[in-house]
Design brief:
Blueprint: E1 2-8, H1 12-23, E2 27-34, H2 41-54, E3 62-64, H3 78-81, H4 105-114, E4 122-125, H5 130-138, H6 141-145, E5 148-152, H7 184-188, H8 190-197, H9 200-203, E6 206-209, H10 211-214, H11 221-229, H12 235-238, H13 244-264, H14 275-282, E7 293-299, E8 319-323, E9 331-333, H15 339-354
Parallel strand pairs: 1-2, 1-4, 2-3, 4-5, 5-6
Antiparallel strand pairs: 7-8, 7-9
Helix pairs in contact: 1-2, 1-13, 1-14, 1-15, 5-8, 11-13
The protein binds beta-D-ribofuranose and calcium ion.
Calcium ion (CA) binds near residues 13, 37 and 127.
Enzyme class: hydrolase
GO molecular function: purine nucleosidase activity; uridine nucleosidase activity
Family: Belongs to the IUNH family.
């Protein structure tokens, strides 16, 4: 099994990353740290514990990490995830196991990761990269110890000939989501993202799952039907009531679908970004390009940030990617995935969660 430490800002798509990491039989989930992002740290930590309760995995240790970037104010995404970070979920249970306080999140991450055999464990951030950046800055010995970092973050646009978000930023075009240039997780703390990507040894073992890929992984109506009843089940036709946990994950997709339709005009179904970073860590063969091409990536850290960013056409948080040849370093950016296989994998994990 692949050891994974998951670092989340639990909103709607992070919940699927937790489901996959906690229930896939080929993953050993070492623990979860939380970070501000979709909502405040207090809310994302609560949401993480509640999702673990819903899927019968409250034994996974949860540590609260950082509440803000170290040189910026925290930004949140209530327009996409609601005020709670996980709005629209009437089936969300109240967590019963408290967050761990016996050590800090960074200590817990380091101790769990350094205890794994060298070259096996992955750090998988699906929120702002603040915890991950601090981890490798505080414990540089981890860089050579881990198998890698697989982060959901960034948007590169160019290099994707049929990129759904557009390849050129001009009037009315965009490849980011928080601004026309920048993806949310990188935008909220670009310095932390840069600290990872500009560390050549760490970049060489980093995968970035960017919007260009995640916008190919849409929870369409057909997918939602499969997730509600089970992909190979005829339960919908014989009227069997779906389980609470399936109802919860459908509530999550329903809310997410509405905000993506309202804010971005994406009506085919919401892109479920975060579980793809887990997939890239333990099952890269599901990306038809065997895990992706390599790019030298620079993160723009200057320019307006906050309310004025869009009006001022700020490029802060943009990830500028230049292709590099194999053996010349850079980060891995997957471009193609077997989306049906990933949905089936998530369906299997829901089936496992239903047993609890
Ligand atoms: C990323 O931002 C968050 O809103 C999502 O959870 C995802 O990690 C997408 O840009
Ligand atoms: Ca996230």
């Amino acid at each position: 099994r692949t050891p994974i430490w998951l670092d989340v800002d639990t909103g709607h798509d992070d919940a699927f990353a937790i489901l996959l990491a906690a229930h896939h039989p080929k993953i050993q989930l070492l623990g979860i740290s939380t970070v501000y992002g979709n909502a405040s740290l207090t809310k994302t930590t609560y949401n993480t514990r509640a999702i673990l309760k819903a899927i019968g995995k409250e034994d996974v240790p949860v540590y609260a990490g950082t509440a803000k970037p170290f040189c910026r104010e925290a930004a949140h995404a209530p327009d996409i995830h609601g005020e709670s970070g996980l709005d629209g979920t009437t089936c969300l249970p109240t967590p019963t196991v408290p967050v761990r306080t016996n050590k800090t999140a960074l200590e817990a991450m380091y101790e769990a990761l350094i205890a794994t055999p060298k070259g096996t464990a992955w750090v998988v951030p699906t929120g702002a990269l603040t915890n991950a950046g601090l981890l490798f800055a505080t414990h540089p010995d981890l860089v050579s110890h881990v198998a890698g970092v697989s982060a959901m973050g960034g948007a590169i646009g160019s290099g994707f000939t049929d990129a759904p978000m557009g390849t050129v930023v001009g009037e009315g075009e965009r490849f980011g989501n928080i601004t026309p240039y920048a993806e949310f997780n990188v935008y909220v703390d670009p310095e932390s993202a840069k600290s990872i990507i500009s560390n050549k040894a760490l970049a060489a073992k980093t995968t970035l799952v960017t919007l260009d890929l995640t916008h190919r992984f849409l929870a369409t109506g057909e997918v939602q039907k499969g997730m509600l009843h089970g992909f190979d089940s005829s339960a919908d036709s014989n009227g069997k009531e779906p389980s609470q946990v399936r109802k919860l994950f459908i509530e999550i997709l329903t809310f997410f679908a509405k905000t993506y339709a309202d804010i971005f005009g994406i009506t085919d179904g919401p892109p479920v970004h975060d579980p793809l970073a887990v997939v890239a860590a333990f099952a890269p063969a599901l990306f038809s390009d065997e895990g992706g091409e390599r790019y030298e990536v620079d993160v723009v850290t200057d320019g307006a940030h906050g309310a004025q960013a869009v009006a001022m056409k700020s490029q802060c948080g943009r990830t500028i990617a230049t292709p590099v040849l194999p053996g010349e370093g850079g980060v891995r950016i997957p471009k193609r995935l077997d989306d049906e296989a990933v949905w089936r994998m998530l369906d299997e994990c829901l089936r496992a969660a239903e047993k609890f």
